[in-house]
Write a structure and sequence with these properties.
The chain is an alpha/beta fold. The protein has helices spanning about 10-20, 20-30, 40-60, 65-80, 100, 105-110, 135-150, 190-200; strands spanning about 125-130, 155-160, 180-185, 205-210. The chain contains eight helices and four strands. Helix 8 (about 190-200) links the parallel strand 3 and strand 4. The protein is globular and about 55 Å long. The two termini are about 30 Å apart.
Length: about 210
């Protein structure tokens, strides 16, 4: 009966995504960003909201067409926030990036600036972020790539479609030092094992991280 919101921020975002209302979702995000960093928003709100979408997908209450529209709304939200300027927080989703990438003085100095200007000698694809199994994973990979770039590290998001046997050999990896595979479904251990085995045939010398966000 009080005046406080009944739903948590990630639940309110999920509600707006289900309503396919990217504009109101963006308004909610901007209000959250008045007191939090962009990185905190993605870690505490956006990714947990995607996890709720995945949970409903796994329960069979969200069909493919509706899920695709929800993902489109999330991608619109991400695009709307792409030019938000603040200093990223130093925690959580990127904490496992190897220290020689994430903890370099250069990366931290650039992260302090809203507009990150990469050294032209550094690869734009130092880190490749793949959605591992579906479009929801793709959205998580896009968020991760966005946050990594805010740290001054070159990153590119690629789709689970790029991981198919036909497309994987076509992925450009020149200058890539790390590959991250993002899963929102925690029951994808076997899928991850076989996927990494297949990727190793093409990416023998590149470090890989498998990230379960659910």
């Amino acid at each position: 009966l009080g005046s406080e919101p009944v739903l948590a921020p990630h639940e309110r975002l999920y509600q707006r995504l289900l309503a396919l209302d990217a504009d109101e979702a963006t308004e909610q995000a901007e209000k959250y960003l008045e007191d939090h960093s962009v990185e905190q928003f993605y870690n505490k709100v956006a990714v947990p909201a995607l996890a709720l979408v995945e949970l409903d997908r796994a329960r069979g209450v969200l069909d493919y067409d509706r899920r695709s529209l929800v993902v489109d709304s999330m991608l619109t939200l991400i695009d709307n926030l792409s030019d938000v300027e603040d200093k990223p927080s130093e925690d959580e989703l990127l904490e496992d990036i190897p220290s020689d990438l994430a903890d370099s003085e250069e990366a931290h100095a650039k992260a302090a600036s809203p507009a990150v200007a990469l050294n032209p000698e550094r690869s734009e694809r130092e880190v490749l972020c793949f959605g591992a199994r579906g479009t929801l994973d793709d959205a998580a990979a896009i968020i991760a790539a966005h946050l990594i770039e805010r740290r001054g590290i070159g990153a590119q998001a690629l789709s689970w479609i790029d991981l198919t046997p036909a497309n994987l050999p076509l992925v450009k990896t020149e200058g890539t030092r790390l590959v991250c595979l993002f899963y929102l479904n925690d029951n994808s251990i076997a899928h991850a094992r076989y996927l990494v085995r297949r990727m190793r045939r093409h990416l023998r010398k590149i470090q890989m991280h498998v990230v379960f966000l659910g």
